[in-house]
Design brief:
Number of domains: 1
Radius of gyration: 15 Å
Mean pLDDT: 84
Low-confidence stretches: none
Distance between the termini: 40 Å
CATH topology: Cysteine Rich Protein
Largest sheet: 3 strands, antiparallel
Strand content: 5-15%
Bound molecules: zinc ion
CATH architecture: Ribbon
Shape: elongated
Oligomer: single chain
CATH class: Mainly Beta
Strand order of the largest sheet: 2-1-3
Length: 72
């Protein structure tokens, strides 16, 4: 099992590319279902947390070793 990016809610098949909630086992749900389930995964009773977006980097805290623009 790798970091497979699921794009559909497991409950209602809604597209969750923009905002997904996952548990530690990467069960994936949309915000609507997550709210209704009180942030608890129905499969494993784990906590559902918001999945970070795969694209884009944090402009405030770049990770170490990252290319720094304008920093010579
Ligand atoms: Zn859903
Ligand atoms: Zn789960």
């Amino acid at each position: 099992m790798g970091l497979e990016m699921r794009k559909r809610c497991e409950k209602c098949s809604e597209n969750v590319e923009h905002e997904a909630y996952i548990c530690v086992h990467e069960c994936t749900f949309c915000l609507d279902c997550t709210t209704k389930m009180f942030n608890i995964c129905p499969n494993c009773n784990g906590e559902l947390v918001r999945r970070p977006k795969p694209k884009g980097t944090c402009p405030i805290a770049p990770p170490e070793g990252v290319f720094m623009m304008g920093n010579r």
